[in-house]
Amino acid sequence: MAEQTNLQIQETEKQEVEQSAAEPTRTGYIFVPRTDIYETDEAIHVVCDMPGVRPDGADITLEQNMLSVSGHVEPTWPEGYSLNYAEYRIGDYERRFTLNTEVNEEAIEAKLNNGVLHITLPKMRPTRHKIAIQAAG
Questions:
Q1: What domains are defined for the chain?
Q2: Exposed, middle or buried: residue 62 (CB in 10 Å: 0-12, 13-18, 19+)?
Q3: What is the C-alpha to C-alpha distance for residues 125 and 110, in angstroms, rounded to an integer?
Q4: What sign does the dihedral 25-114-97-59 (CA atoms) show?
Q5: How far is CA 136 from its chain centroid?
């Protein structure tokens, strides 16, 4: 007989980015993407949920150990329909992370599939140099 599991679904609201004193350049919502970060000996892996973002609408930068992730959503509506009611707010995504580990910037990889962004940040390998010691005198 199959064992039955009781899964509980937890509802969460999208968290909006706190607006700064600066004037926004676009109208609409900006959300903080839900993110998981895990680390292996070789790399740091960042997984961000950004539903509605396409690869050409995503932007990732790494500058002075600050990883910035953003995604622009281009809303699409079925032809001939108009929206009467919505529970799901559509907007862009922004998030920043400070990295405590040096990464190999040349080997960073990013993939976006079905609104889930996977970033792989390979760690820098420590280099070891043998230094010759000369006798004084």
A1: 44-74+90-125 (2.60.40.790)
A2: middle
A3: 20
A4: negative
A5: 55
Neighbouring CB atoms inside 10 A of 93's CB total 28
Rg of the chain over CA atoms, in angstroms?
A: 22
Q: Which residues of the chain have pLDDT under 50?
A: none
Q: Which two tokens stand for residue 130?
A: 């043998």
Instruction: Find, among 115, 100, 101, the residue nearest to 34 by Cα.
Output: 115
Task: Please name the residue that has the structure tokens 């959503």.
Answer: 73
Residue whose tokens read 């862009």: 92
The residue whose two tokens read 């995503």 is: 58
106-126: pLDDT as tens digits: 999 999 999 999 999 999 887
